[in-house]
Amino acid sequence: MITVLKPNTTEQQRDHLISWFKTQGIEVHLSVGSEYTVLGLVGDTNHLDVSLVESLSIVDSVKRVSEPYKQCSRKFHPDDSVIDIDGVKIGGGNFAIIAGPCSVESEEQLTTIAERVKESGANMLRGGAFKPRTSPYAFQGLRGDGIELLLKAKEKTGLPIVTELMDASHLPLFKDVDVIQVGARNMQNFELLKEVGKFGKPVLLKRGLANTLNELLMSAEYILAQGNPNVILCERGIRTFETATRNTLDISAVPMLHEMTHLPVIVDPSHASGIAKLVPPMSMAAAACGADGLMIEVHNDPINALCDGAQSLTPEQFDDLSKKIATIRTVF
Ligand code: PEP
Ligand code: MN
Description:
Helix 6 (213-224) links the parallel strand 11 and strand 12. The protein folds into two domains: 2-63, Phospho-2-dehydro-3-deoxyheptonate aldolase, domain 1 (Alpha-Beta Plaits, 2-Layer Sandwich), CATH 3.30.70; 83-329, Aldolase class I (TIM Barrel), CATH 3.20.20.70. The chain is built from ten helices and 14 strands. The chain has 332 residues and is α/β, with parallel strands linked by helices. Strands 7-8-9-10-11-12-13-14 form an eight-stranded parallel barrel, surrounded by six helices. Strands 2-3-1-4 form a four-stranded antiparallel sheet. Strands 5-6 form a two-stranded antiparallel ribbon. Helix 5 (190-199) packs across helix 6 and helix 9 (279-288) packs parallel to helix 10. The structure holds phosphoenolpyruvate (PEP) and manganese (II) ion.
């Protein structure tokens, strides 16, 4: 349920009402927007006398939030959420470009790529240390050593780092990581979602291979319900009957999610298409339809990459794309 307050409500009146809701056993999420202040009520609101709350002079309206995702809902928080990642903002007009190799392979590989993507305008570095691979015989990642290399690259470039967590038992290794990625295959690993919610670091949550937007938001809700509001959603393509591309980029997910939620939405055109040539046009489409950022795989030697070389841009291609994205961003 949400309670919208009238624009001239004083802080004292507002806090008084919040305290009253708390005495009713209800948790209150305060969202001070540009026009209205919204109190998001979480808990058992069934016993609340709606007409009593509506009758208060400071209350504009009271509405039940019908969506099963409450805290993620745009109704709960009308303004875009802006997430600050060690000084890099995303959401609410702040566009982030996350780039890096699919897998961290060596110090030289990672540092070279990190420096190149930074020069071209990336503001976060991503590299996989724990890799979810379809085959158990494929390269599984450098694991803890990969995280160490990411931290070294951060020290050199200053870029915040993003890397994937697959198992909550690895969380101690992630204490200095800036953004924890939960990959498509784990989007509905609810125990993992609860753990990253409790851990408190910003989370990049990728849409599952065959999940609806409603399911994506329910998964994000697991993280928010643990008191962690810093969730970035990522559209990375879904499975359809089409086999020419690795997945089908659901571009309409971006504006649709912006209607449904206040959380930032980014696009991963690399996993969505699986083909390096398609990454620039898909990235431009994502930027043009209002995505809050992009996550792009870049490799200095794609042909010899240990993972996802076919969809990786070279640093030169990434540089060219970054310039085009900057031009598209000028329309906003
Ligand atoms: C990845 O980002 O490295 C990855 C494996 O992507 P996804 O979880 O979207 O398949
Ligand atoms: Mn990859």
